[in-house]
Amino acid sequence: MDHFADRLRAAPQSRLQRGAAAEALALARQLARWAQELEEPGVEPREMPDAGMFAAADQITVAGHDLAVVLRSDADVDDALTWVQAAQKRAGV
């Protein structure tokens, strides 16, 4: 996820506007939701807010690191990495 975040930070504004930032926000929300479900089972997860396209890289970094702390198995880590790689491919960065 750090690689994806670095690529977003280096991307031109036009690339972010064409969907890269939206893809990053969607990934950050997905990662944050998963982390919350592991940390607080049975509690409705809160949605990560849209902090704007220039914050998307930071949002995936924070959500990804939060999730990494609570993941329980290597299989979960593999799943998270698959999500990140797929999102980065869709974002085109």
Termini distance?
Answer: 12 Å
Task: Give helix and strand order, one letter per element, not per position.
Answer: HHHH
The Rg value, from CA coordinates, equals 13 Å
Uncertain residue segments: none
The biggest beta sheet, please? none
Structural class: mainly alpha
Counting structural domains, the number is: 1
- Please give the number of β-strands: 0
Oligomer: single chain
Summarize the structure.
By secondary structure, the protein is an all-alpha fold.
How does this structure look, described?
The protein has helices spanning 2-10, 13-39, 56-70, 74-91. With 93 residues, it is mainly α. It has one domain (1-91). Helix 1 runs antiparallel to helix 3 and helix 2 runs parallel beside helix 3. The longest helix has 27 residues, at 13-39. The radius of gyration is 13 Å and the shape is globular. It starts with a helix and ends with a helix. The model has no long low-confidence stretch (mean pLDDT 95).
